[in-house]
Specification:
Helix content: 40-55%
Shape: globular
Largest sheet: none
Distance between the termini: 56 Å
Radius of gyration: 18 Å
Number of domains: 2
Order of helices and strands: HHHHH
Strand content: under 5%
Number of strands: 0
Length: 114
Protein backbone atom coordinates (compact mmCIF):
# COMPACT_ATOMS: atom_id res chain seq x y z
CA UNK A 1 0.00 0.00 0.00
CA UNK A 2 1.40 3.43 -0.79
CA UNK A 3 2.02 5.89 2.00
CA UNK A 4 -1.36 6.70 3.49
CA UNK A 5 -2.59 10.31 3.46
CA UNK A 6 -4.21 9.70 6.87
CA UNK A 7 -2.63 9.11 10.28
CA UNK A 8 -5.63 7.01 11.31
CA UNK A 9 -5.02 3.44 12.50
CA UNK A 10 -7.88 1.87 10.53
CA UNK A 11 -7.66 2.77 6.85
CA UNK A 12 -9.78 2.00 3.80
CA UNK A 13 -8.34 0.37 0.70
CA UNK A 14 -7.92 3.91 -0.64
CA UNK A 15 -5.75 4.84 2.35
CA UNK A 16 -8.31 7.15 3.92
CA UNK A 17 -9.75 7.08 7.43
CA UNK A 18 -12.48 4.43 7.76
CA UNK A 19 -15.88 5.89 8.63
CA UNK A 20 -17.25 4.54 11.91
CA UNK A 21 -20.49 3.28 10.38
CA UNK A 22 -18.53 1.25 7.80
CA UNK A 23 -16.14 -0.04 10.44
CA UNK A 24 -19.06 -0.99 12.67
CA UNK A 25 -20.72 -2.96 9.85
CA UNK A 26 -17.48 -4.79 9.08
CA UNK A 27 -16.95 -5.50 12.77
CA UNK A 28 -20.45 -6.96 13.11
CA UNK A 29 -19.82 -9.22 10.09
CA UNK A 30 -16.61 -10.48 11.72
CA UNK A 31 -18.46 -11.09 15.00
CA UNK A 32 -21.10 -13.16 13.18
CA UNK A 33 -18.47 -15.13 11.23
CA UNK A 34 -16.59 -15.85 14.45
CA UNK A 35 -19.81 -17.19 15.98
CA UNK A 36 -19.82 -14.71 18.86
CA UNK A 37 -23.27 -14.27 20.36
CA UNK A 38 -24.72 -11.31 22.23
CA UNK A 39 -25.37 -12.02 25.92
CA UNK A 40 -28.41 -9.76 25.71
CA UNK A 41 -29.73 -6.85 23.64
CA UNK A 42 -27.53 -4.53 25.72
CA UNK A 43 -24.46 -6.76 26.10
CA UNK A 44 -22.95 -7.57 22.73
CA UNK A 45 -19.49 -7.35 21.17
CA UNK A 46 -18.73 -3.77 20.11
CA UNK A 47 -15.74 -2.17 18.38
CA UNK A 48 -15.11 -0.06 21.48
CA UNK A 49 -14.52 -3.26 23.46
CA UNK A 50 -11.27 -3.73 21.51
CA UNK A 51 -10.03 -0.41 22.87
CA UNK A 52 -11.08 -1.25 26.43
CA UNK A 53 -9.46 -4.69 26.26
CA UNK A 54 -6.24 -3.17 24.93
CA UNK A 55 -6.13 -0.61 27.75
CA UNK A 56 -6.82 -3.13 30.52
CA UNK A 57 -4.38 -5.73 29.14
CA UNK A 58 -1.68 -3.07 28.78
CA UNK A 59 -2.14 -1.96 32.39
CA UNK A 60 -2.18 -5.54 33.68
CA UNK A 61 1.04 -6.26 31.79
CA UNK A 62 2.72 -3.20 33.27
CA UNK A 63 1.70 -4.16 36.81
CA UNK A 64 2.87 -7.76 36.34
CA UNK A 65 6.19 -6.56 34.88
CA UNK A 66 6.74 -4.25 37.85
CA UNK A 67 6.68 -1.16 35.63
CA UNK A 68 6.12 2.33 37.00
CA UNK A 69 2.47 2.46 35.92
CA UNK A 70 2.02 6.05 37.05
CA UNK A 71 4.93 7.12 34.83
CA UNK A 72 3.65 5.03 31.89
CA UNK A 73 0.01 6.11 32.12
CA UNK A 74 0.44 9.31 30.05
CA UNK A 75 1.64 7.14 27.16
CA UNK A 76 -1.47 4.99 27.30
CA UNK A 77 -3.64 8.09 27.69
CA UNK A 78 -2.11 9.62 24.59
CA UNK A 79 -2.57 6.43 22.60
CA UNK A 80 -6.22 6.23 23.66
CA UNK A 81 -6.77 9.89 22.80
CA UNK A 82 -7.46 11.02 26.36
CA UNK A 83 -6.53 14.62 27.11
CA UNK A 84 -5.53 13.84 30.70
CA UNK A 85 -4.21 10.63 32.33
CA UNK A 86 -6.95 11.01 34.95
CA UNK A 87 -9.42 10.03 32.21
CA UNK A 88 -7.58 6.73 31.85
CA UNK A 89 -7.69 5.83 35.55
CA UNK A 90 -11.23 4.48 35.33
CA UNK A 91 -9.77 1.36 33.71
CA UNK A 92 -8.27 0.52 37.11
CA UNK A 93 -11.76 -0.06 38.50
CA UNK A 94 -13.17 -1.58 35.30
CA UNK A 95 -11.45 -4.95 35.72
CA UNK A 96 -11.27 -6.85 39.02
CA UNK A 97 -7.87 -8.38 38.15
CA UNK A 98 -6.42 -4.95 37.42
CA UNK A 99 -7.90 -3.48 40.59
CA UNK A 100 -6.33 -6.31 42.59
CA UNK A 101 -2.89 -5.74 41.06
CA UNK A 102 -3.12 -2.02 41.79
CA UNK A 103 -4.16 -2.73 45.39
CA UNK A 104 -1.23 -5.12 45.86
CA UNK A 105 1.14 -2.43 44.63
CA UNK A 106 -0.26 0.08 47.12
CA UNK A 107 -0.41 -2.25 50.13
CA UNK A 108 2.58 -2.70 52.41
CA UNK A 109 4.40 -6.00 51.82
CA UNK A 110 2.35 -8.99 52.94
CA UNK A 111 -0.82 -7.03 53.69
CA UNK A 112 -2.49 -7.08 50.26
CA UNK A 113 -4.78 -10.06 50.99
CA UNK A 114 -6.13 -9.21 54.44
Amino acid sequence: MPTAPSLAFFLSAAGTRVRYDNFHLGFQQLVRRAGLKARSAHCRPRPHDLRDSFAVRTLIGWYRDGADVEAMLPRLSTYLGHLHPANTYWYLSAAPELLGLAAERLAPTGEAHR
